[in-house]
From TrEMBL:
Subcellular location: Cell membrane
Keyword Membrane tagged: yes
Record-given protein name: Membrane protein involved in the export of O-antigen and teichoic acid
Record keywords: Cell membrane, Membrane, Transmembrane, Transmembrane helix
Residues spanning the membrane: 16-34, 76-96, 108-126, 138-160, 166-186, 198-217, 293-311, 317-339, 351-369, 375-395, 415-433, 439-459
Species: Loktanella atrilutea
Main location as per UniProt: membrane
Matches recorded under Pfam families: Polysacc_synt_3
GO cellular component: plasma membrane
Length: 493
């Protein structure tokens, strides 16, 4: 258990560093690019991410969860990924001009051509990253990810300040891929992986076809509305809505993305050792929701100050969107466990079933709402998010014999934490903000302090399991530091 907590710690450090760099980059670029320029990049990014979801072909998760891996299988994984990447690169280059004409934005074609270059770096880093995850080597993964994000941030901001415009973000994406592949190979050098082979490629198809299709459907449900906004509402609407979503994803990125790299390898190992995943699922949800729900509630209450600090004055249309999206996102707290549970239990096809049931109605609702404006799109999440989570839970329950009452029991204490966190800030908002958004500096700082005090007070009252987890993690860190100090002292002796 100590090694798992240390893996979570390294993963958390990695993700928090990345999160800080993301916030800094977003804050700086929001003051350089207009919402329309930001929307232009996001349209290109949407198309690239959709193509990338097919390019990866689920090979990383396959390597992580597979019981036995041969050298030939890993070589086949690299070869297959490279062939798909070359195909996607050619497709993007061939269709870029037509996409630019469709949106009447010639600059969009240029962004897509630049981004296509980034596809060629992915296959060289993918196998090494998957092997590091399989080995739970999250300290070395933290080095890889941090180096890549630093490079991306530096390139993006430097080119943005140089007046490159939306292309600065795309060159940052290319830098991310190149540096990630370089550092991944340095941390897990396996040069034999790059020898072409297709001998065991068939083993990837049953898993990869389903996994990549599920990833594509999930991303399409998230990004397809952007493509519609670009045509119906203009690229400035794309920029405004996407930045609202980005802000609402900050708690999710800080928590879920710290856990996500560890969850699938840990669950797969737990399953291989004969463990029951139901207890792991419930405890993980309890700990996750204890942080995510209070954070999202605080973000909804303090949407105005958050947007002013992160984005600046030209984004004043964003706070009302943030408030609604943050509240809707709370329904998705257990969702980060669904994919790892289904993969670890050998039910990869159930992930496809979940996507096919939940996502088409969600996309239809969101696109219909787009005809009534951005606020209607944000409000649609109050229906879409609970629907998606309900479908996911029904499928997961079959995989791990999860009972509804157990899930409710695991959630109750987190609800108390969220309410305890929000009471003080809500009172200040009612007292000092007539429009519900324009809190001053000192009331905002007071609201943050009251929120933290309310969370700690509720934590003591309900004895939430996250308290035990914090203590145990602290002990694991102390033990690791003591062992390191002891080894150094022994070496000097």
């Amino acid at each position: 258990m100590t090694s798992l907590r240390l893996s979570l710690l390294f993963s958390a450090i990695d993700r928090y560093i990345n999160q800080i760099l993301l916030v800094v980059t977003t804050a700086i670029m929001a003051r350089i690019l207009t919402p329309a320029e930001t929307g232009l990049f996001l349209m290109a990014n949407t198309l690239i991410m959709l193509a990338d979801s097919l390019r990866s072909f689920g090979i990383g998760p396959f390597i992580v969860q597979h019981h036995t891996l041969s050298r030939t299988a890993l070589r086949s994984a690299f070869t297959l990924t490279m062939l798909i990447s070359l195909g996607m690169c050619a497709l993007i280059l061939g269709t870029a001009e037509a996409v630019g004409r469709y949106y009447d934005q010639p600059a969009l074609a240029g962004l897509l051509r630049i981004a296509a270059v980034g596809f060629l770096a992915g296959p060289f880093g993918g196998p090494s990253i998957a092997l590091l995850q399989r080995d739970l080597a999250f300290g070395r993964l933290a080095v890889v990810n941090t180096a890549a994000v630093v490079a991306s941030a530096v390139v993006t901001i430097w080119l943005g300040l140089s007046g490159i415009g939306a292309a600065s973000y795309v060159w940052g994406y290319v830098a991310l891929g190149v540096v990630s592949a370089t550092f991944a190979f340095a941390m897990r050098p396996e040069p034999w992986v790059f020898r072409p082979s297709l001998r065991e490629v068939g083993g990837f198809f049953s898993f990869g076809a389903v996994s990549s299709f599920v990833a594509f459907i999930n991303l399409a449900s998230e990004f397809l509305p952007r493509l519609v906004f670009g045509k119906l509402l203009g690229f400035d609407a794309v920029g405004l809505y996407a930045r609202a979503v980005t802000i609402c994803q900050l708690p999710n990125r800080a928590i879920v993305q710290a856990l996500q790299p560890v969850v699938l390898p840990a669950m797969a190992a737990h399953r291989r050792n004969g463990g029951h995943l139901g207890e792991v699922y419930l405890r993980s949800h309890a700990i996750m929701s204890a942080i995510q729900w209070p954070a999202l509630l605080m973000l909804a209450l303090l949407a105005g100050p958050a947007v002013r600090v992160l984005l600046g004055p030209q984004w004043d249309a964003v706070p009302p969107l943030v408030r609604v999206i943050a509240l809707g996102t709370m329904a998705l707290a257990p969702d980060f466990m669904s994919y790892p549970v289904l993969v670890a239990t050998g039910r990869i096809r159930d992930t496809l079933l979940t996507a096919l049931i939940s996502l088409p109605p969600s996309v239809a609702i969101t696109i219909t709402a787009a005809h009534f404006g951005l606020w209607a799109v944000a409000a649609s999440l109050l229906v879409v998010a609970p629907w998606q989570m309900l479908v996911s839970l029904v499928v997961v329950r079959r995989a791990i014999d999860l009972r509804w009452r157990d899930l409710v029991k695991a959630s109750r204490a987190s609800v108390v934490l969220a309410l305890g966190t929000g009471v003080g800030p809500l009172g200040l908002l009612l007292l000092f903000s007539p429009d519900g958004y324009s809190l001053g500096v000192y009331p905002t700082l007071a609201a943050l302090a009251l929120g933290a005090a309310g969370w700690l007070t509720a934590l003591r009252l309900v004895r939430h399991p996250i308290g035990t987890e914090i203590v145990d993690t602290g002990r694991a860190i102390t033990a690791m530091v003591a062992r390191t100090a002891g080894r150094r002292a022994f070496g000097r002796g």
